[in-house]
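Sample A.
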Amino acid sequence: MPKTKTTNPEPVDREMREFEAALLRSVDQAKKGVIAASHTPSAIQARRAGRPVGSTKPARKVPTTIRLSPEVSSAFRATGDGWQTRIDAALKDWLRTHSASLDAGL
């Protein structure tokens, strides 16, 4: 017969008691209106849907589709989240260093 690992139930019981106590405090505060004061009809009406004013950047990026070589794509993707932002930064850097030669060619 395989051995079964016995666990001490006390940490779970302690955690459950703490959770229940916090839940009861929350209910008590809601009944008194301490926490739920921000959920009055006037407060809900005052808050508008959508992003807060000023939370968007004034110069938005333009969605586009480009074809990249597999080496470039895999190299940038391997750097993790934000790889598209890093490609954007690399292209901006290229523009800064090559803008004079581009102007001369036009």
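Sample B, a different protein:
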Amino acid sequence: MIAANRTRRATLKTRRTQHQAAARIRRQGTATLATHCIAAGLPIREARSVAGSLRKNAAKANVTGTPSVSYTHGRARHCTRYTPAEVARIAVIYRPRKPAYRTAAAKLALAA
């Protein structure tokens, strides 16, 4: 595959994933922390990392979320879904070091 086409396809894939995550949050009103991070513009691997840190800060912010079930690749997993307002309360406490995580935290805080 031509390298330029590979980068274009990767760009389109990340843009589509970000848009789908944002649309899911708009439609359903709640989403997992990783989905909120993807909608804020982080790649999937980094979104998982930030979501773990946000999960730790959720207890400090007294945010419980809604228990739910997430279906991924045919597996059902227990998860907690949060509204954009709850994620904003968690993101205010979150203090990342990496610049990409800082911009994502700012977007999450403004999402509510």
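Observation for Sample B: The radius of gyration is 15 Å.
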